[in-house]
Amino acid sequence: MVLGCIMGDPGRAERIVVKISGKLISPDHPELVEDYAAILGRLEEEGYRVAVVVGGGHVARRYINAARRLGSNEAILDLIGIAASRMNAYLLALALGGKAYPLVARGLEEFMAFWSTGKIVVAGGFQPGQSTNAVSAILAEAIGSKLIINCSTVDGVYDKDPRIHPDARMLPRVTVSELVKILSRTQSHKAGKYELLDPIAMRIMLRSRIRLAVINGFNPENLARLLGGESVGSMVEPE
Amino acid sequence: MVLGCIMGDPGRAERIVVKISGKLISPDHPELVEDYAAILGRLEEEGYRVAVVVGGGHVARRYINAARRLGSNEAILDLIGIAASRMNAYLLALALGGKAYPLVARGLEEFMAFWSTGKIVVAGGFQPGQSTNAVSAILAEAIGSKLIINCSTVDGVYDKDPRIHPDARMLPRVTVSELVKILSRTQSHKAGKYELLDPIAMRIMLRSRIRLAVINGFNPENLARLLGGESVGSMVEPE
Amino acid sequence: MVLGCIMGDPGRAERIVVKISGKLISPDHPELVEDYAAILGRLEEEGYRVAVVVGGGHVARRYINAARRLGSNEAILDLIGIAASRMNAYLLALALGGKAYPLVARGLEEFMAFWSTGKIVVAGGFQPGQSTNAVSAILAEAIGSKLIINCSTVDGVYDKDPRIHPDARMLPRVTVSELVKILSRTQSHKAGKYELLDPIAMRIMLRSRIRLAVINGFNPENLARLLGGESVGSMVEPE
Amino acid sequence: MVLGCIMGDPGRAERIVVKISGKLISPDHPELVEDYAAILGRLEEEGYRVAVVVGGGHVARRYINAARRLGSNEAILDLIGIAASRMNAYLLALALGGKAYPLVARGLEEFMAFWSTGKIVVAGGFQPGQSTNAVSAILAEAIGSKLIINCSTVDGVYDKDPRIHPDARMLPRVTVSELVKILSRTQSHKAGKYELLDPIAMRIMLRSRIRLAVINGFNPENLARLLGGESVGSMVEPE
Amino acid sequence: MVLGCIMGDPGRAERIVVKISGKLISPDHPELVEDYAAILGRLEEEGYRVAVVVGGGHVARRYINAARRLGSNEAILDLIGIAASRMNAYLLALALGGKAYPLVARGLEEFMAFWSTGKIVVAGGFQPGQSTNAVSAILAEAIGSKLIINCSTVDGVYDKDPRIHPDARMLPRVTVSELVKILSRTQSHKAGKYELLDPIAMRIMLRSRIRLAVINGFNPENLARLLGGESVGSMVEPE
Amino acid sequence: MVLGCIMGDPGRAERIVVKISGKLISPDHPELVEDYAAILGRLEEEGYRVAVVVGGGHVARRYINAARRLGSNEAILDLIGIAASRMNAYLLALALGGKAYPLVARGLEEFMAFWSTGKIVVAGGFQPGQSTNAVSAILAEAIGSKLIINCSTVDGVYDKDPRIHPDARMLPRVTVSELVKILSRTQSHKAGKYELLDPIAMRIMLRSRIRLAVINGFNPENLARLLGGESVGSMVEPE
D73 to chain E nearest CA, in Å? Predict the structure, then answer.
């Protein structure tokens, strides 16, 4: 029973942060946006309080590439990537209708104000230098969530890059420090580059004992299955 | 000499509004963005003061289509189209570097504040119910410009739709009321639909005697040629 | 039974947009402001959700005239007219007390945030180039209302201008296109000029199938009578 | 030579705060607005840096009276009076054109940002509980001005109310404490009530050694005459 | 029974404004912050609606002193004192958790928006020229509270300064005008100077018939005792 | 000649980011604030364009400790630490007077707008999850600076903690990766903890080839000496 231990306080709504890749919440996949809205709405009815963070995906990538060619520096590239992530976040907020706060939160103070209304709150990026994974971790900390669910484009965490190594093995459970070692071989520092776990997110997970579930988000039902107690994808432990 | 008559006040910098289609200023065409930045920068050096409005283009279209499928109404679709137009506008502002105000104006009051710095100001859409063509007309009126240059995806105004009628003829000169008749046969009222001249823009052109040049924006040099006095595209007269 | 057909979805609060002329909601008629607050409060208790848009009226007219004499252009005149409409809107919000959101919405995004609180939301104008009639239509679309009630200074729509033609006849039912023809003979394009139906409002009514009731707002009870099913004033159909 | 002593620092532009009654800057007197814009523009050309505060006047009075009848409390009445003062302030900013910052400052931080552009900055009221006279004093302190010129609707300070006492005598020179005694017999505490010198303004004048010239603003030339060294109206000395 | 007369309207939650000295709500006394959060939370559960204003205290004093040495004028000193008061206010909001709106109100309009959510709202200072005592009075007026409770660093109002006169006597009941006389011998006009009752607060108490209880806030239970009907500290009557 | 290589583009003002510890710019050391203002002003006169970032220091530490005791989580602790850093930043902006933009930048977009005025811009923290060191790196990237000068409370980078190891040796030159190894033995992840180089700052230095000078900021002249070409403190190279 994967999630038993996070349900400590029965009198309070269970709080979770759902990070969804911008490759999933985008104009390319309106059906996925619809599915996610349905599942997040269901979670809310079941008593969860949910904060959602959406990444920039292909649209961000395209604007970043264009701006880089125009000579923009990395900090500015982050700004335009953040703008794109907010477009995707807004798309999800629209699909959620009255269940979500109708504006996308642009920073933690704004998020806290929106969150106090009791609705689902959707955010994109906050500030240059932080990936949307970092934003997820900050929000988890701020609302007292002990679990981030990363609806990603991979099945979970592998011991090596599965695109290169056919013998790569998915790890159902991995510690942050193990993950850091795995990632250190593959990641880059350019703006908008895909990063499963950036240094801020890692630091926050450690200091506030937050777990990170990495699941394949192309199938939104994985989210429901995970919360139902099934073993899906990988669980990164703040150990 | 097409533009002679607009240069009435030699003591003041000539003011123009340049509307550029979101199909031209977009991540799909960084080289066009670069070219437009170069030409607009040159215009400024030659003593023009320039306000620029950028449309939403394909990115807007894709978000609007996705949001429509998610059940959003037209007013909300406008909102997401406006957000997309601001991304394109920001891309152009980045390419302009220090010559442009570093933020995209989101309404007329904000525009006036940015404009007072003396820099080129770039805007996308302002509010639902207004196309970026309407925004161009509002800005022209606000800054006292008598000319809007619409860098569009067509060569100019035709007497019938050239995609259907092989014998369509481009009109070097046309009045607003003639244009209204031509357009009334082809336009739709859906959010983000292409509109060369929306009702607000038309009304403003008439009440403030503003001319509208329609040129093929795939070749940015058309902009320089037009201001150099050459006959390019069509001139819509507020008559 | 005029309004039967708009009550399709019994599980959801009926949503209506009430546009009130700035000649009615103004410091000149505190008793009318009081009456409107009472009726709108009653509607809310009966289960309606209500968005209200207030025009600029005489105060707007006076500021616009003064600013025009000072050399302001039409776009800037719109700005000062919008500011005046917000003063009137605020007056109504004050009269509504705890039933209304305590700030006046200045754009659609802000409106949606205020609307999500469940309270009555009052707006004035949004942006230059849009009359408060256009704002009403945008709000109707955004909240999914199929009816705008225009509390105007006339009894309804006439086939000709009743101030000039003693034989003018009020039309209980008229289509948008018929109204356009009637208005095309009388309207002007100056900022703040009285307009029953501006081009944006018309376009939105058509694209989203919204009806517009025009009633004499000097008697606020007309509003309650209309919603009670009586035939009052004219109904403009999006046909 | 009334103003000689305030011109201590020849290397820096002389800074003055001009308070103008809302009875003078209003849509009722566009010609006065025009005259003030001309004079303030001239002052700027002569090397003064000028901050302007405009009161609410008749429009504020009418909204306050209406809102009071609707049951609003005094703090809220202040809010609507402040909104009206900003409309008048905006009218003056429009008349000043490019010489003024194009937005009305709504608080001290915003004022300081606008002021840093080098332009004339116009403000109305800031917050409930403060009259526009208090705002003038705060701005004088903030920009290091040693003189506030109050363009009022009276000729100057009288030893008794001249509307009642035919033998009232205008005082060319009076100390703050003398003025307090004179005013204590006539002033009221209701929102928007005319107050030549509210307690905050008085306190600030004392603590920062600021002088207050009270002149008849129906003749804008009085402003130029005063700065030219003529004896006009009354000078209130911070002792 | 001190408070009996303020409880006139049994159908509406009793509204009170609690002003707490920045010497009590500060990082120096986290245990006091905790105690106040507990008591304010309890009051809310008992059916009170509570607005809280927190002063700047020692932190404000230190920043003001430093800025004064750097040559800042009094208006700017007020700004930095206001910033410090908001830090203390935020500390209290944090301690109140979900019972308080998560942002500190920075002006009356913002306060009214936050207040409309039904939560406890915490403010610091608003604008230069106003002490946090003035803010308390403005809020009392705005929300229709007839009682401000000033949790101060003294036991109550004395007939003379008890730090100097061993025979000073605390006054259980005093009128505003008596208090003014007492204070006129001791107060200064410098920014951030301690003031039990500034001129704005006094004027508002008089015009809206608001009472001010002055209690020793080092013992937070005094607040509960006062509301329970015990005689604690001094009651200043708007007489 | 330490800084020779960063001065590549003679036609453009040299741009530098100066990070100053909140232990130096604080109300505890007004004389240091004064000294820094003088030196930064001098640098600007010599043709540098300067962005300044100020940390939270002791005030931040005290608020964070108090809030932690009140049960706040780390993300919220970051918020209050950021608020404190902005107080210190404001103190420096005040001391800089007209040479600095009069508001503290709260995010990168705001910073870019302020920066476009040509003035010195001062910032504190931006968002939770980012130290003020990260903000320095983001700003360096955004303005195209190749050098951050960290005015810290230590003499430079040591090979071990000099407070513990008497034989610790200061390193005049060190690479980022060497520094990471040194720091990995000493740093903690709690909010507001002192960090010479957080992971974001490091990543940005690497991706944009920015150097970091660490100098003892208790002597502000070290800043001038460093820019004058002297060897002061440690230079961290993006190698």
Answer: 6
